[in-house]
Amino acid sequence: MELEKLKEFIEFMNQNSLCELEIEEEGKRIRLKKFSAEQPVVISHSQGGASPAVKEEKKEGSLEIKSPMVGTFYRAPSPGAKPYVETGDIVKPGDVVCIIEAMKLMNEIKSEVEGKIAQVLVENGEPVEFSRTLFLIEPL
Q1: Alpha-carbon radius of gyration of the chain
Q2: Is the pTM of this model over 0.90?
């Protein structure tokens, strides 16, 4: 594989906040992986775009958990399993709140704050974009 193609793949990973990428091309297989323990979850106080299917009711002082990557949002570890969090649940830093599947990889998204889940803004199985607001959190 050419060095230029590898650089393109690395740039693609950086642009899409991916921690791992596996490619098979012309009988050759390559796997690129960053050495970070996890992808960071972006939390901010700014207004975010809510899903058209779910109305966002942001209260003053609430925090947002945003998607750190492009992918498919899953509320539970497997179909039919109990969701990681429900509205009203208390989360602490490090608690898994959902999974985002990106390029066949399941990425656990963890809370970085302590608080109560005020609202889940994305439907299970829905595609999400980078920086899309997934949850509203009321800080404790």
Answers
A1: 16
A2: no
Same domain, yes or no, for 89 and 133? Answer: yes
- Rounded mean pLDDT of 14-28? 76
Q: What is the total count of domains within the chain?
A: 2
CA distances from 28 to 2, 23, 24, 95 (A): 12, 8, 6, 38
Assign residue 112 the CATH number of its domain: 2.40.50.100
Report the distance separating Cα 35 and Cα 74, nearest Å: 24
Is residue 31 within 8 Å of residue 21, measured between CB atoms? yes
